Amino acid sequence: MICFETGFAVLLNIETWKNWVPIISLFVAIGALGVAYWQVQVGRNTSASAQAHGIYQQYLTLCIAHPKFASGGYVPKNVNDDEYAKYTWFFSSMLFAFEQILEAKPNDEKWGETVKHQLEKHKVHLLKSRTAASNQWHESLEKIINEIKETNLSPIN
């Protein structure tokens, strides 16, 4: 008889449940929406991370195939240097890969630092490249390009 003494007998009344079901359903629905939203966000983040890693892996594969371009120290031998033409295409491909990475993970500081580190290797070409100066890149990549160019102009270098 503890049920009647504590007031829990009201839970045995069907009328009480009829009145509370809509409110309980509302809270369950809000909770389900919260869980669904969280799952979508986690899925997007996971997908963006996988995309960024895949693109960077392709870039690294290109670097392995062309180590003299990847080092960033390639200097043209003459005006009609075919290898330098290949380097400029490597450079453009690298910028495109970095743009895709930064679009996929725009707020990830580690990716930003990785891209900056790689671009610094190519500073000589970055300073004279019309492709890099085209101002048609994602704003995150533009910012990194401009930072590297500005460090070259500072009196410390």
Tell me what the structure shows.
- The protein is an all-alpha fold.
- It has a domain at 52-153.
- The chain is built from seven helices and no strands.
- Helix 2 runs antiparallel to helix 4 (82-104) and helix 5 (109-120) packs across helix 7 (139-153).
- The longest helix is centred in the N-terminal third of the chain and has 52 residues, at 14-65.
- It is rod-shaped.
- The model has no long low-confidence stretch (mean pLDDT 87).
Topology:
Elements: H1 2-6, H2 14-65, H3 67-70, H4 82-104, H5 109-120, H6 123-128, H7 139-153
Proportion of helical residues: over 70%
- DSSP summary, beta strand count: 0
Output the structural class. mainly alpha
Order of helix and strand elements from N to C terminus: HHHHHHH
**Residue runs with pLDDT of under 50 for 5 or more positions:** none
Strand content: under 5%
Terminal CA distance reads 87 Å
Shape: rod-shaped
Mean pLDDT: 87
Largest sheet: none
Instruction: Report the C-alpha radius of gyration, rounded.
Output: 29 Å
Annotation field: number of helices: 7
Briefly characterize the structure.
With 157 residues, the protein is mainly alpha-helical. It has a domain at 52-153.
List the keywords:
mainly alpha
